[in-house]
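Q: Sequence in, structure out?
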Amino acid sequence: MNCPKHLTAEAKEFWTNHSKRLIRAGLLTEAEKETFALCCEVYKQLRNCDPTLDAKSALRWQSSVKQFVVLAKQFGLLPKDRLKMKLEPDEKDEFGN
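A: Exactly. Output:
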């Protein structure tokens, strides 16, 4: 599955780092492609936001964290959620388990 062309460079990097594993696990299909693209863009926003600048930046960062967590859970990107994902017996995660 190709990375959506509309993603920014940082979002494409996140896509590249995670999409193959998600596809193998059956968590990323054409049906979820745009949702994962949104997750990638939210990750980019999170990385580019400095919560220490001012109150507005802190609120923007906090909002981005919440958005990312909601989206990341759907793809098992958080450790706790990854444990809940059921992989096929012949599939292994990125740690070889």
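Residues 87-91 have pLDDT under 50 and may be disordered.
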